[in-house]
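Re: pyridoxal-5'-phosphate structure - here you go.
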Amino acid sequence: MAAASVGTIAAVASESIPASANPSTKGSKLAINGGKPVRTKPWPSWPIWDESAEESVLSILRSGIWCRLGGKTVSEFEKKYAELMGAKRCVCTVNGSNALLTALHVLDIGVGDEVIVSPYTFIATYNVVIGSCALPVFADTDPETFQINPDKIEERINENTKAILPVHILGLPANMDKINAIAKKHNLRVIEDACQAWMAEWRGKKCGTLGDLGCFSFQNSKHIPCGEGGAIIGDDDEIMDRCFSYHNCGRPYGSVKSTSGYPIIGTNRRMTEYQAAILLSQMKRLEKDTQIRNENAHYLTSKIKDIPGIIPHKLYEGVTRAAYHLYPFRYKKEQFNNISREKFLSALSAEGIPCSGGYGPQYRDGLIEVALNSKNFKRAFSNERLNRYRRELHYPDNDQLCQEAVWLSQNLLLTTKNDMDDIADAISKIYENRDKLT
Ligand SMILES: Cc1ncc(COP(=O)(O)O)c(C=O)c1O
């Protein structure tokens, strides 16, 4: 086994504990103030790989067939990943962003169209909609689950809305019953951004198989990583043929036929054989890792849920499994002597628990204005529409969540209950000693 350092930092149980779980933390000096940290032991590094990956990458190198054209490895992974997900077909791409761009393209979502998305997501979700010259129309976030609030979607739909792009953010499933019902009622496409949700399930079906198409990322920090990589899964042969053809320069494929040359517009988004070799090897650990992350996440929830000011995330009733790319909870500073979330994050890190505050309100970062002012958007949308869009850019629940969220990265969950106790003890210690934080 080998491992590299983590690149990005990225409810349920019943057992109840008092606010101070560990009496040894009461009255002890906080690490941020020079005290002994709750934890000094390192956390697992990520990614982790074994010799079989090294051998298969080397054998591809030695074969001289590094591209999927002429190779077998990408096709083998596509077949196995589709099987694992319970989808009919899979097409691999260079990364998750290009999986999403391909999905939007083949479903004919582009210039002048509107796509409903969550504001609480990695920036790639915004970028792929904007990059398709469509308007990303945000529906506010459900702070309890960190997902798009399904009850805020319908009010955003108009005659130009073509799709809902739900993101199973942090690896926790969005409310797919409500989203699919709305999509059906308004005749909209559903493209799932499952780029953080490998193996997550909604009512026993894998995320990525619940809409028209599902997209995944295999970037370095992901649970099934290969540096950069992505995939689209789906059940409709004709749509999947178009995905394949489009990602392969528009060459004929399956039902995309031609008597001569290139029947459709295309691009090159092909995955390399190396990427697929690493993925085949990484896939072997995915089920077990998912189990461990879920067990530890649920245990951690049971340990922190009664600490005042700590609100664990909730999972919707339809969630049968989460992926836990991140473990999120909300921090209410009112219960912590009004100590800022940033100070809390510093104190928790000092106790040996790596953490971050997660996404900010990215729709105020500048990129939306750049898009709205672009030549393409001005041609595609009326001034009146763009001004109305500007006026609607208010997402109070998302703004609040961005100020209160605390994220723990997935690798912290690849441990044991004792390690979860360290996290709970560190939070309890900070709570008990909140008057010593300024
Ligand atoms: C929610 C989400 N969507 C899309 C992407 C884009 O994937 P990639 O980085 O592979 O392009 C990511 C990657 O982090 C993501 O987390």
